[in-house]
Amino acid sequence: MAAPRPPPPTASSASFGTASSGGSLPIWEPSACLPRLTRVLNARDLAEALPAIRPGRIFRSGSPSNASLEDALLLRRDLAIQQFVDFRSSSELAEDTAWPLVLSNGVIKTYDSSGRVSEVVVDRNPELAGHGCDAFPAELHRLSLLERNKFIRGLLPRLPYRAVAAAAWYKLVGDEVAMRGAVVPVINAGGLLLIYQILLETASVELARTLEVVAAAAAERKPLLFFCKLGKDRTGTVAALVLTACGASRNQIVADYARSDGVNEVALGGIERMEDVQGMDSAIFASAPAECMEALLDHAQEAYGGLAKYMTGIGFGEERQAALREALTGGDW
């Protein structure tokens, strides 16, 4: 049985629009609330990308781990978000400071590569007492999509043999500058598309579990927010999968991705800080140009038969995709 959902916010705590029927009754617009977030980057409702998705059901953003009190109230009370999915790497998690606000009266679930899940309970936070935003428990699902070892495993087959041999030799003799000179130009030439290709290949288990978490939350009528550090790359890739499952067109998927182009920061699970790849061109990896998502969709078509078939191949098949689509686009919550 689905858990009851908190009521929409009052006029004093949220933005309202005019009813589409032409009347004067106010309607709640989550997309109008999101600009009020002060410490959560790049936040938006996926309904903005695909109008078939009902507003207020699924959101994407940068990390809310450093959210202000006002941000926490907006997420937990005004938007009634009960499920959070975190794609950040183990090294990025050390930057967290404010989760006790957002996850007051919640639980953190961490999934390892073998499928095991560990849980940590988060107590009620006294700062939120009296605000009514933690009346319903929250769950944070941690599913890292980019880790150093996976990135290297996915990168090596893409490097020319001569580059691999040269890098190995320079590494052996301790010439770090020359070693990077053999590898980094290949990464820069591959750009963000290379990162996304590696992500699809090496994080298929995590992506399948992510889709199951999203589908379960939607079926249980629990609003969900998924995010990475900036809400651009890992989040953009998952958004493309969810939008595909919901029937979005190519243009809608590309347009949603390109909205992150103004973030202008690099956050690739800490890969960008690895000594072995110092010299990555930040101008390339801080962007989110439409042509990059166009190229990813082309790659998915060539390699897997499209993103829908990719999802089927990793265990989230047509029936599961249809159920997710119905839960996000149909009925009333």
TrEMBL record:
Looking up InterPro entries in the UniProt record yields: Prot-tyrosine_phosphatase-like (IPR029021), Tyr/Ser_Pase_IphP-type (IPR026893)
Signal sequence annotation: none
What the entry lists under SUPFAM superfamilies is as follows: (Phosphotyrosine protein) phosphatases II (SSF52799)
List the Pfam families hit by this protein, alphabetically.
Y_phosphatase3
State a single Gene Ontology molecular function: phosphoprotein phosphatase activity
Residues that span the membrane, as ranges? none
- Protein name in UniProt: Tyrosine specific protein phosphatases domain-containing protein
What are the top taxonomic ranks of the organism? Eukaryota, Viridiplantae, Chlorophyta, core chlorophytes, Trebouxiophyceae
